[in-house]
Sequence to fold (146 residues):
Amino acid sequence: MKITTHSAEETIALGKRIAEFLKGGDVIAFEGDLGAGKTTITRGICLGLGLPDNVTSPTFSLVNEYRGEKNTLAHFDMYRIESSEDLYLTGFYDYIEEGCVVAVEWSENIKDALPEGAITVRLERLDDNTRIIEISGDERFDAAWD
Fold:
């Protein structure tokens, strides 16, 4: 499924819509170049899960955790992950086992380690405002926009 957004607000709204279909343990594997909107759509997912909207890119921390009363989202940046040992040390697997929703920027770098059933969200930046966003990997989202 492909969706075009024309502003950061529309990308956030799409993230909120995606959140309606998420459950604990889901892994969202984001793919897209720098500036494609990965953090923006994650902000929408957090809002849709009832979490704080103070979402920032986890570039320097590797993982940002957003906790609410009912949900937790672990937001990873895998740009600098170079080995399975690096991945293990981030706590990636622990968050999945704990039933957190896990959002992974630069998921291409850990493609072989992603769990079966990971939801792939590809973001393509066309200009300052426009994004083409493709969601695949789970049929829950096919019904979302029928």
About this structure: The radius of gyration is 14 Å. The beta strands are 2-5, 27-31, 63-67, 72-77, 101-105, 119-125, 131-136. The chain has one domain: 2-145. The chain has a mean pLDDT of 89.
